[in-house]
């Protein structure tokens, strides 16, 4: 995952996509040339032609040559157009805590970034991807978008690069010439991987050429065929492919279309599978993304495929390269390439078994959600969150199934309730609200599960600052809970109302409501909710004036979390103690609690608590005579808040203290120095800001303009600091937009920076005249 604006370091090569990469030098160079000339480039071509692998290679080359950050977003698993922007924002590391449209949050966060954003597999979301890419490149002059799709996005200014098949040898080519063609090199590479004894000799020239021409140079077709080198000689393989493909040319002139070639090759792979393997292939196509053996045994078994044979059949499909294996901390998982999965979808539909298998898929993930709810406090929380992150795409498919019928919607609402912490901890506020809305529309009147969905939606709306929706959802949840007599749902309603009072600085009301909710949670044995409410309760009691009792409640909450090995609410409990001490107590204790929170962040990725923690540490520094440090931490905290789409001033108890701290810092430093220190902190990537807060590093001094930039570059740097876009700079200075782009590239390179915020900081700190 990306580390934030200005340090989007989350890109790394996917070994399944780039291992033993063969060929594509020409296409890689052309794609890079197009990216230098346009903000949006789309790689197009049929399934199996290698668009994704080419995109990985282009991205790697781009990053190596430019030092730009690269973020790769795979969309193959995404089925909901409405979740496109939140998904991209999540991969980028941006939060979802704003009522503003997600596109505005993303655009604001990216406006100062140098970034290559790769959107892979856009074809099933082409309209949404076109709108998103167009919006981003128009508003963010230093962002480039590289898309892959079976069709172009159709956006003005888009450069389209059709991805051709790999080069194939000509009939009659010599052995020496043939073995240098890309398709032959890929076949040999993959055949050698499955059959280490595989070797080419000059006598193989004719069948080798015939085979590669028959496969049309399609990388996926070549890889599927290469698997057969384990059992067949090269000539046997070429002869069998000739026989398999003859049906395509029987009643037509010339060669079949490439998509027919691909289909025929997959048909042949399918025919070579056993009956159970074909069954598992079709049934496993209901999974989105990857899946593990337990899920395969539950969802794919039955009839001709007994549960006890699933492992054996999975092994057979791995052997035939229909399934690919991936290693994760929790064990092995399996996935299919999208073209292979789509073939399985067609086969399952032909048998009429789609509805039944999708229901079994839903039931499995509903059971998984139930186990999560039971074990959340009993086992390794980090492992559970990691597992749900890996299953996120499958959870979406299961919830989508639940939107079909009223009785299924009840199951979906129960799933949302069971994994409520996942939506909250991962900051998936927009998505969580979307699923509640869709399920609420389908569920029958009076179902008790609705109250839990509504309070969850009300909480997520509150977090985003959508107060009208928050109140509406809470009122409905309260009415539903009362009608069904569900005291636990009513307790959650009280808890969310208490949280709203805490945000609004109504501490007496917050204390009362939290206390009542906690009593109900304990009566119903919901310890997770008890812990969640307790740290908020302690903060409210403290700020209501009962410091000793508040301190005791918070100390108990932290101790209970530590005793259980709980990590997520522990971080918030520690922060609550830090906030209370900062506002009304011991600043040394507040700082120590903040340090513990930041060290927990190394295990728990929660930017919101980091933003709060840096804010409190800045206040502590301001009140203990460290104004320079306070200003830097204030800037760092504001940068984190900006990436999560919220601000600490949304919490009214902080408004006056933050203003007082700002006045203290500016009085001590003067406005000019204070702004320079603040800007330096704002330019820090989150990881660097945390290291600075823990006093593990110091901010870097600014580089001197006279040493690195030309007069024209210095002039442009100062205009960049005003926040103008490249086109606006070009208009002001009367030069071409491309000239401005080039100058800014030189500025960033010379200063060793990666984004425009850092340039603005340098201008502010250097004080050099334009």
TrEMBL record:
PROSITE patterns: HTH_LUXR_1, HTH_LUXR_2. Gene3D superfamilies: P-loop containing nucleotide triphosphate hydrolases, Tetratricopeptide repeat domain, Winged helix-like DNA-binding domain superfamily/Winged helix DNA-binding domain. Residues 702-767 form the HTH luxR-type domain. It comes from the Bacteria. Pfam families: AAA_22 (PF13401), GerE (PF00196), HTH_77 (PF25872). This is LuxR C-terminal-related transcriptional regulator. The lineage of its organism: Bacteria, Bacillati, Actinomycetota, Actinomycetes, Pseudonocardiales.
């Amino acid at each position: 995952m990306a580390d934030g604006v200005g340090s989007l370091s989350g890109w790394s090569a996917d070994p399944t996509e780039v291992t033993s990469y063969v060929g594509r030098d020409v296409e890689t160079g052309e794609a890079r040339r197009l990216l230098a000339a346009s903000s949006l480039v789309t790689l197009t071509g049929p399934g199996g032609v290698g668009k994704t692998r080419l995109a990985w290679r282009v991205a790697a080359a781009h990053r190596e040559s430019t030092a730009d950050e690269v973020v790769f977003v795979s969309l193959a698993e995404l089925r909901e157009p409405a979740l496109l922007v939140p998904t991209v924002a999540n991969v980028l590391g941006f939060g979802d805590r704003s009522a503003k449209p997600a596109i505005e949050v993303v655009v604001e966060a990216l406006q100062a970034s140098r970034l290559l954003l790769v959107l892979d597999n856009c074809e099933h979301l082409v309209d949404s991807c076109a709108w998103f890419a167009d919006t981003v490149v128009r508003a963010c002059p230093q962002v480039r978008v590289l898309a892959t799709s079976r069709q172009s996005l159709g956006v003005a200014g888009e450069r389209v690069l059709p991805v051709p098949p790999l080069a194939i040898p000509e009939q009659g080519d010599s052995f020496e010439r043939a073995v240098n063609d890309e398709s032959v090199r890929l076949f040999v590479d993959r055949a050698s991987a499955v059959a280490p004894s595989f070797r080419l000799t000059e006598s193989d020239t004719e069948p080798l050429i015939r085979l590669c021409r028959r496969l049309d140079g399609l990388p996926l077709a070549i890889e599927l065929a290469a698997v057969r080198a384990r059992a067949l000689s090269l000539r046997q393989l070429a002869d069998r492919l000739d026989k398999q493909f003859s049906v395509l040319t029987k009643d037509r002139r010339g060669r079949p279309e490439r998509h027919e070639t691909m289909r025929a090759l997959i048909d042949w792979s399918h025919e070579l599978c056993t009956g159970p393997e074909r069954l598992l292939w079709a049934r496993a196509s209901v999974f989105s993304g990857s899946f593990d053996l337990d899920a395969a045994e539950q969802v794919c078994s039955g009839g001709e495929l007994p549960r006890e044979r699933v492992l054996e059949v999975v092994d057979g499909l791995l052997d035939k390269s229909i399934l690919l294996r991936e290693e994760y901390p929790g064990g092995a998982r399996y996935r299919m390439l999208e073209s292979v999965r789509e073939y399985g979808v067609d086969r399952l539909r032909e048998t009429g078994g789609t509805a039944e298998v999708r229901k079994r898929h839903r039931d499995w993930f509903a059971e998984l959600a139930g186990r999560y709810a039971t074990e959340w406090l009993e086992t390794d929380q980090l492992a559970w969150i990691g597992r749900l992150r890996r299953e996120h795409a499958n959870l979406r498919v299961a919830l989508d199934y639940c939107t079909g019928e009223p009785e299924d919607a009840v199951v979906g609402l129960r799933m949302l309730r069971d994994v409520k912490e996942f939506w909250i901890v991962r900051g998936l506020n927009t998505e969580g609200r979307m699923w509640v809305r869709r399920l609420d529309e389908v569920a029958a009147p009076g179902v008790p599960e609705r109250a839990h969905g509504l309070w969850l939606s009300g909480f997520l709306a509150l977090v985003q600052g959508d107060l009208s929706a928050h109140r509406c959802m809470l009122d409905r949840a309260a009415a539903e809970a009362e009608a069904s007599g569900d005291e636990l749902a009513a307790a959650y309603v009280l808890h969310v109302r208490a949280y709203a009072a805490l945000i609004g600085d109504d501490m007496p009301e917050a204390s009362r409501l939290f206390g009542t909710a906690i009593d109900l949670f304990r009566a119903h044995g919901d310890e997770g909710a008890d812990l969640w409410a307790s740290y908020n309760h302690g903060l409210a009691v403290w700020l209501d004036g009962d410091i000793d009792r508040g301190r005791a409640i918070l100390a108990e909450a932290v101790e209970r979390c530590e005793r259980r090995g709980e990590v997520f609410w522990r971080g918030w409990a520690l922060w609550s103690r830090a906030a209370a001490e900062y506002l009304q107590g011991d600043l040394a204790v507040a700082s120590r609690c903040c340090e513990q929170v930041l060290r927990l962040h190394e295990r728990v990725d929660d930017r919101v608590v980091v933003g709060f923690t840096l804010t409190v540490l800045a206040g502590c520094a301001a009140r203990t005579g460290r104004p320079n440090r306070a200003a830097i931490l204030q800037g760092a905290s504001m940068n984190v808040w900006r990436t999560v789409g919220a601000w600490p001033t949304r919490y009214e108890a902080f408004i006056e203290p933050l203003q007082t701290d700002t006045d203290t810092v500016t009085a001590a430093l003067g406005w000019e120095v204070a702004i320079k220190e603040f800007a330096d902190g704002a330019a820090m990537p989150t990881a660097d800001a945390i290291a600075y807060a823990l006093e593990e590093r110091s901010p870097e001094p600014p580089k001197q303009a006279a040493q690195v930039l030309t007069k024209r570059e210095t002039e442009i740097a100062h205009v960049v600091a005003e926040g103008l876009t490249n086109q606006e700079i070009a208009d002001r200075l009367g030069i071409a937009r491309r000239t401005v782009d080039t100058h800014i590239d030189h500025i960033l390179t010379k200063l060793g920076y990666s984004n425009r915020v850092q340039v603005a900081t340098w201008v502010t700190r250097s004080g050099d005249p334009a």
